[in-house]
Amino acid sequence: MASKSKERKNRKKLKCSECGTVNYFVRKNHVLQNRLELNKLCKTCGKHTLHKETK
Ligand SMILES: [Zn+2]
Known about the structure:
Number of strands: 4
Bound molecules: zinc ion
Strand order of the largest sheet: 2-1-4-3
Strand content: over 45%
Order of helices and strands: HEEEE
Distance between the termini: 22 Å
Radius of gyration: 13 Å
CATH class: Mainly Beta
């Protein structure tokens, strides 16, 4: 189904800006055009770090 592949395309990873570990997945909709940057807990760093959207 075409709709399923579209959903997968909109899924983005959130990568820790300090160690580079991918800790979170987000579903991005078409309205959000700007890059996501969220302060989230990184298990590798053991603290809250800035997580940035990656492909
Ligand atoms: Zn980290």
